[in-house]
Amino acid sequence: MPRNRLYRDGALAEEDVPDADVPRWLRDDRAIVWLDLCGPSESDLAVLVEELGLHETSVEDALENHERPKLHQYDTHLLLNAYAVSLDEASGRLTTAELSAFVTPRALITVRNDDRFDMAAVTRRWDESSSLAASGVGFLLHGLLDVVVDSHFDAVQALDDHIEGLEELVFTERPDDPDVQRRSLAMRKSLVTLRRVVLPMRDVLSGLMRRDHAVVDSRMTPYYQDVHDHVLRASEWTESLRDMVATIRDIQLNLQGNRLNLIMKKVTGWAAIIAVPTAVTGFYGQNVPYPGSDQVWGFWTSTVAMLLLSAGLYGLFKRRDWI
Hints:
It is a single chain. This protein is of the alpha+beta class. The chain is 56% helix and 15% strand. The chain has 9 helices and 7 strands; from the N terminus they run ββαβααββββαααααα. It has helices at 22-26, 46-52, 56-63, 119-128, 137-170, 178-198, 200-208, 221-284, 296-319; strands spanning 3-8, 11-15, 31-38, 70-73, 78-87, 94-104, 107-112. The longest helix has 64 residues, at 221-284. The termini are far apart.
């Protein structure tokens, strides 16, 4: 199903026509065109390469997977790579949806390798702010970037909530619980992925707002500045969450070490208490005559000695919080 739009004179004129009609749109000097391609090949882009003069390396980058978020300038167009993200609430794992976009003075061409990117959210954003359509490609690109950055912000906020829950689990009776460790590792992986896609967006937004690119007019500048501010907040928030997860992991290791020391201290204390009666009974069990060996008072003397010494050691260890 082809997805495209034609804006003329600041208003939506046509939508979702066959791809064969798009070259005619591109030749219209009054038209602003959006074309979305999902899983295209080089042959699918051949017409656009000829009509828009797209550079061959930019086409290769658009079709390649796992490109870094970036903004490249060519003679006739810009190439933008970005990622939208979503967080699985149950596992805390982050998934990414890659998108490339060719930006020309009169056309925005979006290229996706799969359908994970929610393009319907972008078209809704355009419809909600249709009064800005007169700004042309800058208007279309703003709606696209706004959706991308909002997904970053939503993911950071959700990760923050997950990490708060993880903090509470750290101070339970079993801070070394495997589930806590798995969640902590998942948080670290998600934050690493999020950082990799969020931080470069600062340079992307800064580059688009440069005057020599002529993409953002004076009317759209405040809206791009707002998106740029959201990018900065998301990147700073991501960095703080990475530090928080690292701190939580350090606390887990410290608590495990403290619990081990406490266990060893208690075991050692009880071993010392048990050693006293063992020594007394061992002494009285020698194969030689000893005072009271044939008398009842000798038995009671050894018994009282064991009890008094054991109680004394117990009181001493308890007072020092060793047991």
